[in-house]
Amino acid sequence: MLKCLGFQSERARLSLRAAEALEKQKLRNQATIDGKKKEIEKCLDKLQEYQSKCAHKVGYYDAFKSSEEEEDFHANVARLELAGIWDVIIEMLKRYELPDEFEGQKEWIGLGTRYRRIVEPLDIANYYRHLKNEDTGPYMGKGRPRRYKCTQKWREHAEQLPNEIPESCFWAEVEELCIKAGCQGTIESILHLKTKVDKWIQNEELGGDVLLENSTFTKLQKQHFLTN
């Protein structure tokens, strides 16, 4: 009986040590990820500058989708760099290699939200530019990367928001409405989207360049006899 109790006690000590070692490793992993913050912010600053330049032309989304200028190429490089960093973070979360509280940390929620709002429109533009929807279906179906779903959930959980199609997926909704142009219910869907757009712009969650005269969204509205 004493041997059995001793064995159980030793096993408990080993389990505790293993758990402590795992938590220390998780903290080291987070320190490594935290070291990527400046790199993430630097890339986002570049894209925000690119966004500002496009806002005086055809708009952020449409400029990147056409990709006719050298600055569009540089924006794509930043997009891919950020995707690489965030995919590593999400994969580490999937493997439980980061602290349990990581997803609730205010700084990472803010950074994830900023990333999603600035970069997801570019991913959507790339998706439809290369007609990936013809093979995979709508972006919001199987096309949306996990890195955006996760960062959206972080914010929803922190702010107790409902799970809805977010402002960063606005252009995916527009693209699908363009494809379905003329189908029953399209006008109602555009009107509903316009209501959401007005709210997003008012809350500074979406840029006003989406309403530029030559933007895809404005053209879609004109096509269906709608005005801004």
Overall description:
Helix content is 72%, strand content 0%. The protein is an all-alpha fold. The chain folds into 2 domains: 33-159; 173-228, no CATH class. 27% of the residues are buried. The mean pLDDT is 90.
Helix and strand layout, with pairings?
Elements: H1 2-34, H2 37-54, H3 60-66, H4 70-94, H5 106-129, H6 133-136, H7 139-143, H8 146-159, H9 170-179, H10 186-202, H11 216-223
Helix pairs in contact: 2-4, 2-5, 3-5, 5-8, 5-9, 9-10
Number of helices: 11
N-to-C terminal Cα separation, in Å?
A: 82 Å
Main pleated-sheet profile? none
- Percent of residues in beta strands: under 5%
User: Which structural class matches the secondary elements?
Assistant: mainly alpha
User: Which stretches are low in confidence, meaning pLDDT under 50 for 5 or more residues running?
Assistant: none
Count of domain modules? 2
Could you tell me the mean pLDDT?
90
- Rg is 22 Å
> Which H/E pattern describes the elements?
HHHHHHHHHHH
Number of strands: 0
Looking at the structure, what is the overall shape? elongated
Helical residue percent?
A: over 70%
Task: Supply the key terms.
single chain; mainly alpha; 228 residues
Quick structural overview:
The chain is mostly helical. It has helices spanning 2-34, 37-54, 60-66, 70-94, 106-129, 133-136, 139-143, 146-159, 170-179, 186-202, 216-223. The chain folds into two domains: 33-159; 173-228, no CATH class.
